[in-house]
Amino acid sequence: MKSQKKILQKSVLLLMAVSMAAVAGCQGGRKERTYPEPVVSKVREDAVSPEMSERDGGGAAEKEPADADGGETERAESAPPQGAQTEKPKPPEGWTFNLASEDWGLSFGEEGAQPVGNASAEDLKWYDAYYVGDAREKVIYLTFDCGYENGNTAPILDALKKHDAPATFFVVGHFLETAPDMVKRMVAEGHAVGNHTYHHLDMPAISDEATFRSEMEDVAGLFHEITGEELSMYYRPPRGKCNEENLKTAQKLGYSTIFWSLAYVDWNQDDQPGREEALDKLTARIHPGAVVLLHNTSRTNGEILDELLTRWEGMGYSFRPLSELTEGGTQTT
């Protein structure tokens, strides 16, 4: 009996030793599974646009892989995607928007100074609208309104490429339908393409948001079909006609409204300005932060743009994309 008892004790001790060794080996070769600290978004859910919410999941919580016990751990909402709209600051109490006329207009003073618009740059900015940039910087924002193609867009693009000058082309539906290759070239050469509405309507005369939205979305949709890219979120009112409700609606749709601080009568095909007349007017009235409006249909513009850009460069100006204006704000005199 004593012999059997000793054998049993030795067996138990041996089994305990083997078990302890196995546990030690597992602990030495295995690292504990850890998860990164969750990043919690501080952007309010209602500050993200409906389009962004639908495309990127609307901020719904995602699930972590199953944990060691076979359960699921819920991960906190991640940071908002790039481009998500945060809540915009509101005008001060008692503020009213002052727009002198529904037809955009300018008053010029001394040469080289910024003109005065129908509304101030400060008031327009509450609606993400702009007509001029920083008065302290000798920069120019080039924009072209494109109603149709008549052979003058190509030399305009050639001149921009030669000077490495970025521009924004505001297109209507007819231009997209009839000149898709020209639109593709604009994108390929690094220019922005903005919204000039599909039918070039009198926008202040539109009383319902659905029609306004349709004019904008139809342009964006056809542009995407042609290029596979998203339209730049810049809106230029046809003929510069606009009211406060238009500005509010454009802002609601995610657009920045772009007016201008320098233009000339270049759109009349039966009365094109002469070369020297155009150069003199456009160099005399250029100013820091200028948003220049030219028409792609102008024969004169196609002929003079290379020389015009050269003259502006000689005056100390450089060319910047509209994104620097809309993201950087304005400082006017």
SSE blueprint and pairings:
Layout: H1 2-29, H2 50-56, E1 106-107, E2 116-117, H3 121-125, E3 129-130, E4 139-146, H4 153-162, E5 167-171, H5 173-178, H6 180-188, E6 192-195, H7 209-227, E7 234-235, H8 244-252, E8 256-258, H9 275-284, E9 290-295, H10 299-314, E10 318-319, H11 322-328
Parallel strand pairs: 3-8, 4-5, 4-9, 4-10, 5-6, 7-8
Antiparallel strand pairs: 1-2
Helix pairs in contact: 4-10, 9-10
Structure, explained:
With 333 residues, the protein is α/β, with parallel strands linked by helices. The protein has a domain at 124-328: Glycoside hydrolase/deacetylase (TIM Barrel, Alpha-Beta Barrel). The chain has eleven helices and ten strands. It has helices at residues 2-29, 50-56, 121-125, 153-162, 173-178, 180-188, 209-227, 244-252, 275-284, 299-314, 322-328; strands at 106-107, 116-117, 129-130, 139-146, 167-171, 192-195, 234-235, 256-258, 290-295, 318-319. Strands 4, 5, 6, 9 and 10 form a five-stranded parallel sheet that branches. Helix 4 packs parallel to helix 10 (299-314) and helix 9 crosses helix 10. The chain is globular and about 45 Å long. It starts with a helix and ends in a 5-residue tail after the last helix. 29% of the residues are buried.
Which stretches of 5+ consecutive residues score pLDDT under 50? 1-8, 10-84
Q: How far from one another are the termini? A: 110 Å
- Proportion of β residues? 5-15%
CATH class of the domain at 124-328: Alpha Beta
Morphology: globular
The CATH homologous superfamily name of the domain at 124-328 equals Glycoside hydrolase/deacetylase
CATH fold field value of the domain at 124-328:
TIM Barrel
| DSSP strand tally | 10
